Amino acid sequence: MSHRTVLISGAGIAGLTLAYWLRRHGWAPTVVERAPDLRAGGYKIDIRGAALDVVARMGLLDEIRARTTDVRGGHVVDATGRRVASMDGDTFGGRVHGDAEIHRGDLADLLRAATDVEYRFGDAIAALDETDTGVTVTYDSGDVRTYDLVVGADGLHSRTRRLAFGPEERYVRPMGYRIAVYSVPNHLDLDREELTYVGAGRTALTYSTARDDGAKAMFLYATPDASRRTPEELRRELAEEYRGEGWEVPTLLAGLAATPDFYADAMAQVHMDAWSRGRVALVGDAAYAASPASGQGTSLALVGAYVLAGELAAAPDHRTGFAAYERAMRPYVAANQRLGPANVKRMVLRSKGQVRLSMAMLSVLGRLPGHDRMMARVVAPIHRAATAIALRTY
Questions:
Q1: Which CATH number is associated with domain 5-69+94-172+268-342?
Q2: Distance between alpha carbon 43 and the CA centroid of its chain, in Å?
C-alpha cells in the first residue's frame, strides 16, 4: 500500500495497540489524545484467549504476568457482611487457561513504552475533510494536518465516529444499567480480595490488588436513564440510588465527593453495519463496544487492533484492508457482544426475591456434588467467545 501515514484518535488500549502494530509494519502513526497524558490507574481488566496471543506476539506477556492483580479470593456477602459464598480469585473472575488480570493503567503503560510513535496529548479532532488522496484533520488546537488514513479508537462516545458516521444515537445501544468505579481507602484491610454485595437492582463491590495500598469501589445498578451527565450529576445519582443500602455501602460512598478518579457511564454496546467509511475506520469500543459486563472489552481492543493493522499491511489498498478486517472480526465481535446481556443479569438482580434465591443457592453451592463442573459451565461461554478467532500471522 502506498499510503503510510495514519492518525489514531485515542490513546487507550485499542489506540496504543494499533499504533504498535502499524509502526511494526512500517507505517508512521500519530496518536492524538484529548487528555494531557495516559489515564493512570483504572479498574482491573482481563486479557483472555486470542488477546493473550496478541500480547505474546508483542513480547509483553511476561511483563503483564509480573504485574497481575494477584486477587486470590472472591466472596459474596449479605447486608450484614456475612460471607455467603467464597471462591478463588480466578473462578470468581471467570478466568481459565492462563487468562491474565491487570490494572488498565499498567497495561497502557506497557503498551506506550513499547510504541515509538508521535503523540499529541491535550488535543483532539475537531473536523475531518476527506479527499481522494487523504484526510485533512483540523484539531481543536487549530492545527491542520493531512493523513492517508484516520482511525477512531476513542471509545464508546467516539467523536471520530460522530464526525465520520453520524450521531451517537444511531449506534450506541444502552443496556439499562450504569457502572461507577473509583478509589477508596482499604478500610476493610483486604489483602488481594474482592467482596460483592447484591441488593435488588443494585450491586456494590470493593477489592484490593497487589501493589496497591488502597482499594477500589464499583457499583452496578439498573436504570432506564442512559443520558450523558456531568461527573457531579453522576455522583449525586449514585449516592441517591444506594441510599439506605446495607453492608459497607455507606462507608464506600463517604469518599465519593473527594475521590480523584471517579468514572461512571451507562453500560452500552455499539452496533454498526460498517466499521469504515472511505479513509476513516473504527476499532475497539468506538466500533463494537461489548460493555463492561462482557468482561471482554480489553481483549476486543487488543485483537481488533492487531487484525486491523495486519490486514492494512497485507492489502494493496485501504478499502481491501478495511473489508478484510471486518470479515475477520465480525464473528468474534458477535460472540463477545452476546456475553454482555447474559452476564449483567447475573451481576445485577432485579428483585428482592431473586436476591434471596441467589443467596440461598450460593450458600450451599460449595457443598453440592459436582460443584467444579457447575462452575466450569458458567465460565465456558466466556472462554468460547475469547477464543472465537484464529489469528493470522501478518
A1: 3.50.50.60
A2: 9
